[in-house]
Automatic annotation (TrEMBL):
Protein name in UniProt: Ammonium transporter
Transmembrane annotation, as ranges: 21-42, 63-89, 109-129, 136-156, 176-193, 213-230, 250-270, 277-294, 300-321, 333-353, 373-391
Top-level taxon: Bacteria
Xref: PROSITE patterns: AMMONIUM_TRANSP
The family this protein is said to belong to: Belongs to the ammonia transporter channel (TC 1.A.11.2) family.
SUPFAM superfamilies: Ammonium transporter (SSF111352)
PANTHER family found in the cross-reference section: AMMONIUM TRANSPORTER, AMMONIUM TRANSPORTER SLL0108-RELATED
Organism: Flagellimonas chongwuensis
């Protein structure tokens, strides 16, 4: 009798723990969903007002198109049980098909959907102000349906069929799986689309200031908040040890963002003689991106170290890409997400409590982290190049000079976002 009662209690506790985990994942997904608003405000603030409506439309469609396509096909490619091409991607079981109808797993679908939309949105900022809306929609659909789900299947199913998981690769919440993939796609897109008119004069980079730094700052605060769901929710459970682990992840996330902002602030202050606002904001984002892979594998000191490195690297990277490579990225998306996604992933090889070089683990994890992250970057870059090159040769990537000068809001959407247009943008 006592044994039966204990079994009943254990079963009830297990059910409650499972429900708490599902609730935590759902709430975390809502926070990540809200990050789309942060990306929108950041991109609007860092660019010119005449393209505000276009930016809004791109970010809304990233979420809308991504939600439908990831539900229909992407989730099956990423998490299906049947391997295709020797494990290159997956397929949903034949009895279920690709269209996802699994009531006991809706919360996981929602959580993964908003991650997928984030990867697509990263590209938007890097090609703002000169890209055809129709072309962008097609690319966003392909990224969320095929490019991101295929590379995601290499690690996140967390089973022996995921080759990077088997190799010992660590990417807790997606510095490489999400951010480096989006950053690599953004790099290719920015190169193929080309710089904005007036960005480079006689081979020298010209500053094209954003029109509303308040929007940019609010966007960063929203992203910072949403990242607690992005990283904390990736614990995928709540209760007991999982509660401690999830809250530790949140603390590491906050510390990395804070020190990233501080590092960018003082680095630019010393470099330019001024406390640069946009670089400081990007420093916070760099810390967030950098710690995303290792937030569950390092302690607070490791989080501070990763955030510090990324806060400095992002400034150097933005300058190098802008001035030396002459690639026009209005919001710094390539550096924040691509470069810092890679750096943050690799630094786990140094700072991981289990297997890190500085904790007696040797260089094995450092090597795995390096080639694992490079695999994501190379895949995203190659796949994006093929898609965008075809689009460029068929329907085109870029709007006309007249449309770019007068603004995408007017020509792509037939309306201006502000009743009285800000004159300096003309």
């Amino acid at each position: 009798m006592i044994v039966q009662e204990q079994e009943a209690i254990d079963k009830a506790v297990e059910a409650i723990t499972g429900d708490m985990g599902a609730l935590w994942i759902t709430l975390a997904a809502i926070l990540v969903f809200f990050m789309q608003a942060g990306f929108t405000l950041l991109e609007i603030g860092f660019t010119r007002s005449k393209n505000t409506g276009n930016i809004i439309m791109k970010n809304v469609m990233d979420l809308a198109v991504g939600s439908v396509m990831f539900w229909a096909l992407g989730y099956g490619i990423m998490y299906g049980s049947d391997l295709v091409g020797g494990g290159f991607f997956r397929s949903s079981p034949s009895d279920q098909g690709y269209f996802f109808f699994s009531a006991d797993d809706w919360y996981n679908l929602f959580f993964q959907t908003v991650f997928c939309a984030t990867a697509a949105t990263i590209v938007s900022g890097a090609i703002a102000g000169r890209t055809k809306f129709s072309t962008y929609l097609i690319f966003s659909a392909i990224l969320t349906t095929i490019i991101y789900p295929i590379s995601g299947s290499w690690y996140w199913p967390f089973d022996d069929d995921a080759w990077l998981n088997t190799a010992g690769f660590v990417d807790f919440a997606g510095s490489s799986v999400v951010h480096a993939v989006g950053g690599a796609a953004a790099l290719v897109a920015a190169i193929l689309v080309g710089p904005r008119i007036g960005k480079y004069v006689d081979g020298k980079a010209q500053a094209i200031p954003g029109h509303n730094m308040a929007f940019g700052a609010l966007g960063v605060f929203i992203l910072w908040l949403g990242w607690f769901g992005f990283n904390g929710g990736s614990q995928l459970a709540w209760g007991g040890d999982d509660t401690i682990a999830a809250t530790s992840v949140i603390i590491n996330t906050n510390l990395a963002a804070a020190i990233g902002a501080i590092a960018a602030l003082f680095f630019t202050w010393a470099r330019y003689g001024k406390a640069d606002i946009s670089m400081t904001l990007n420093g916070a984002l760099a810390g967030l991106v950098g710690i995303t892979a290792g937030c569950g594998a390092v302690n607070a000191w490791g989080a501070l170290a990763i955030g510090l490195v990324c806060g400095i690297i992002v400034v150097v990277s933005i300058e190098f890409i802008d001035k030396k490579l002459k690639i026009d990225d209005p919001v710094g998306a390539i550096s924040v997400h691509g470069v810092c996604g890679f750096i943050g992933t690799v630094l786990i090889g140094l700072f991981a409590l289990d297997g890190g070089l500085l904790y007696g683990g040797g260089a094995k994890l450092l090597w795995v982290q390096t080639y694992g992250s490079l695999s994501y970057i190379l895949w995203a870059a190659l796949a994006s190049f093929i898609v965008l090159f075809i689009l460029k040769k068929t329907i085109g990537l870029r709007v006309s000079e007249k449309e770019e000068v007068e603004g995408l809001d007017l020509h792509e959407h037939g309306v201006e976002a502000y009743p009285e247009h800000i004159s300096q943008d003309k």
